[in-house]
Amino acid sequence: VAFKEQYLKDALGKGAAAYIAQSRYEGVDAPFIQVNDIRKAMSLVSILFYGQAYKQLKVVGLTGTKGKTTTTYFVKNILDKYCGKRSGVLSTVEVYTGVEDHDAHLTTPESPDLQKHFSQCLQSDIPYLTMEVSSQAYKMQRVYGMDFDVGMFLNIGEDHVGPMEHESVEDYFNCKLQLMKHCKNAIINRSSDHFEEIYETAKAHAERVIVFGMEEGCDYWVTDIKKEEIGFSFVIHGKDGYEKALRISMAGRFNVENALAAFCAAKALGVDDESIANGLYTSEVKGRMNLFEKDGVTVIVDYAHNYLSFSKLYESLKADYPGRRIVVVVGCPGGK
User: Fold this and answer.
1) Residue 92: pLDDT band by 50, 70, 90 thresholds?
2) What's the number of CA atoms in the CB half-sphere (13 Å) around residue 238?
3) Averaged over 215-228, what is the pLDDT?
4) Which of 115, 125, 162, 249 satisfies CB 3.0 to 4.6 Å to 46 for a cystine?
5) Paired residues of 245 in beta bridges
6) Which helix (H) or strand (E) element contains residue 274?
7) What is the DSSP string of 69-86?
8) In angstroms, rounded to a whole number, what is the distance separating the alpha carbons of residues 333 and 336?
9) Cα dist. 235→191, 229, 241, 259, 326 in Å?
């Protein structure tokens, strides 16, 4: 909508040989390729321009209404320990590719930037990248034409439905569901709404499907959750008899479920138990369940910004601080 013909003329004046568009610009005398979806074309061209760099990395993609950022950093921190250096990350919080290291502006970058980031990781000899894949990323075709080594479906609420994002719950869900059609290893939360449809979609497309949850019968599940002076301890069980006691240092009982999701991703990538344990325990995310205590007062800072996040946050606070008076200070960014 914001593109002007003058921008194209400027580009041609600086050496561009041709242009791709959905229709010809009559005032421009240059070769052009006509496409029926410029966003899909932009993603495909970006993939080719950067030599299909993403295929030479192990890329983990996460989608969900809540928990994407925290789980992203659980996974990233595990991979940092496994590699012995910083792995790549594209999150709501930051961009790190070995070349770029700065605050993020979009949850999932536009396709030319996204593919450039994959290429930068290759240049920096970074073998792993963890990224948040928003519903808008699929709606706007930012990840069109690529597959993920691991795709994670954490949960779904109804908080991104409206004139600025998705016109309906169905559109929101279907955009998120696309990740299950484009990953080799699908990891799904058993307690997510629409679980059966998510699971059947993953089974039809992924090479391997791992189901995690808080109850026995999943591929991996959790028992013995205990609040510690710092964070939580818990035990992860697997269908094959696997059993491992682990800890996280983050507040929020719901983060045990996020840690379990990250554990599954690490297992799908063949990461060893020691790296998983160290990565989980040392993870901290700015603005996510940051804990401060002084003079008997506990302050928790968290970026809960939708109904699902608020609900889980209050459930956790009531369980972890029984009998305590809870005072809430809340901000509302983005006109939500």
Assistant:
1) confident
2) 12
3) 95
4) 115
5) 235
6) helix 273-281
7) HHHHHHHHHHHHHHHTSP
8) 7
9) 18, 17, 12, 11, 29
Phi, psi of 83 (to 5 degrees): -85, -20
CB-based burial label for 113 (10 Å; 0-12, 13-18, 19+):
middle
List the structure tokens of 274: 């020691």
Tell me the mean pLDDT in the region 132-149: 94
Give residue-wise pLDDT tens across range 301-327.
887 777 777 888 888 888 888 888 999
Q: Write down the pTM of the prediction.
A: 0.86
What type of residue is 58?
A: K
- What is the arithmetic mean of pLDDT over 76-87? 97
Q: Report the distance separating Cα 321 and Cα 220, nearest Å.
A: 28
Q: Which residue has the tokens 């080799």?
A: 184
Q: What is the mean pLDDT of residues 252-266?
A: 95
Residue 209's SS3 state is strand
- Per-residue confidence band for 287, with pLDDT thresholds at 50, 70 and 90: confident
127 phi and psi angles, rounded to 5 deg: -85, -15
Q: Is 217 helix (H, G, I), strand (E, B) or coil?
A: coil
Residue 46 has pLDDT above 70, yes or no: yes
| DSSP per position, 79-129 | HHHHHTSPPEEE-SSEEESSS-EEE-SSSS--HHHHHHHHHHHHHTT--EE
Per-residue pLDDT, 335: 58
Query: Which DSSP helix (H) or strand (E) runs through 202?
Result: helix 195-205
Q: Are the C-beta atoms of 329 and 317 separated by less than 8 Å?
A: no
Q: Which residue has the tokens 């229709």?
A: 23
Helix (H, G, I), strand (E, B) or coil at 158: coil
Contact 246, 235 (CB under 8 A): yes
**Sequence-separated (6 or more) residues with CB below 8 Å from residue 34:** 20, 21, 22, 23, 24
Query: What is the total residue count of the chain?
Result: 336
DSSP for residue 161: B
d(CA 224, CA 117): 40
| Distances, alpha carbon 219 to alpha carbons 44, 209, 238, 263, 296, in Å | 35, 9, 6, 12, 41
**What is residue 5's three-state secondary structure?**
helix
